[in-house]
Design goal:
With 110 residues, the protein is mostly helical. Helices cover 59% and strands 5% of the residues. A two-stranded antiparallel ribbon has the order 1-2. The protein is elongated, with a radius of gyration of 20 Å. The termini are far apart.
């Protein structure tokens, strides 16, 4: 029987992005974190929109943007600013947004 040589995933990641602590690796991990946050915000918006039986076009009309922009936000393909996020969630009837800063405290976003 032939012996199979397996390469640990961590070695492949190090080869592709650099070792932990290097500028390239730090930049890649920061980008991944940003993309993940955008995805989760987009999913929350989509879930709230669908719960209200709204189309992307209807939500866009409520906040003054095109349907394509709502699509990008929901897919996590567009960076959403806090003012835009506030307009979206207000349009969906979510009256307050709180940012939890841990030991620093909580900040009302809208």
């Amino acid at each position: 029987m032939a012996k199979i040589n397996l390469t640990p995933a961590s070695k492949l990641v190090d080869e592709a992005w650099g070792k932990i602590g290097t500028p390239d690796r730090d930049a890649m991990e920061a980008q991944l974190a940003e993309d993940l946050h955008a995805y989760f915000i987009g999913e929350a918006i989509k879930k709230a929109r669908k719960a209200q039986h709204l189309t992307q076009e209807e939500l866009g009309e409520r906040i003054g943007v095109q349907r394509a922009q709502i699509s990008k936000i929901e897919k996590g393909k567009s960076v959403i600013t806090l003012p835009t996020m506030a307009r979206v969630f207000r349009a969906l009837g979510i009256e307050s947004g709180i940012l939890d800063l841990g030991t620093v405290g909580k900040v009302a976003l809208w």
